[in-house]
Amino acid sequence: MSKTKAAGTTRLGRDSRSQRLGVKLFAGQIAKPGAIIIRQRGSKFLAGKNVRRGNDDTLYAIRNGVVKFTHKAKVRFDGNKRLAKVANVVPGSR
């Protein structure tokens, strides 16, 4: 007896859907309240002014304005420093 079926069976072909993470609104683009700026896992980017963090670490705008990215020195738990990227929404026109 054969150990495998005749034809048409395969153990390959399964693949998970991509998570579509990354920056959705870049610097200089206009953000409305609730607009997603960054989808991320963990805190690669930090929430700055007029930006909040969702349950899945997504950063979104809470006010109308223009997206702006800055850097900030952040102290880790072991005392070392890292340069963290901060997403801000600056109210007003370009």
Characterize this entry briefly.
This protein has 94 residues and is mostly beta strands.
Please give a structural write-up.
By secondary structure, the chain is mostly beta strands. The strands form two sheets. The protein has a four-stranded antiparallel beta sheet, with no helix packed on it. It has a four-stranded mixed beta sheet with strand order 2-7-8-4, with no helix packed on it. The protein contains no helices and eight strands. It has a domain at 30-90: RNA polymerase II/Efflux pump adaptor protein, barrel-sandwich hybrid domain (OB fold (Dihydrolipoamide Acetyltransferase, E2P), Beta Barrel). Helix content is 0%, strand content 40%. The chain is elongated, with a radius of gyration of 21 Å. It starts with 21 loop residues before the first strand and ends with a strand.
Q: Which tags fit this structure?
A:
94 residues, Large ribosomal subunit protein bL27, 4-stranded mixed sheet, single chain, mainly beta, 4-stranded antiparallel sheet, ribosomal protein
SSE blueprint and pairings:
Blueprint: E1 22-23, E2 30-31, E3 36-39, E4 45-47, E5 51-53, E6 59-61, E7 65-75, E8 81-90
Parallel strand pairs: 4-8
Antiparallel strand pairs: 1-3, 2-7, 3-6, 5-6, 7-8
Category from helices, strands and their pairing: mainly beta
Poorly predicted ranges: none
Within the largest sheet, what's the order of strands?
Answer: 1-3-6-5
CATH topology of the domain at 30-90: OB fold (Dihydrolipoamide Acetyltransferase, E2P)
**CATH secondary-structure class of the domain at 30-90:** Mainly Beta
Largest sheet: 4 strands, antiparallel
Distance between the termini: 74 Å
**Average of per-residue pLDDT values:** 91
**Total helical segments:** 0
Q: Percent of residues in helical segments?
A: under 10%
H/E element order: EEEEEEEE
> Which homologous superfamily in CATH is the superfamily of the domain at 30-90?
RNA polymerase II/Efflux pump adaptor protein, barrel-sandwich hybrid domain
Q: Name the quaternary structure.
A: single chain
Give the percentage of residues in beta strands. Answer: 35-45%
Give the CA-based shape: elongated
Cα Rg:
21 Å
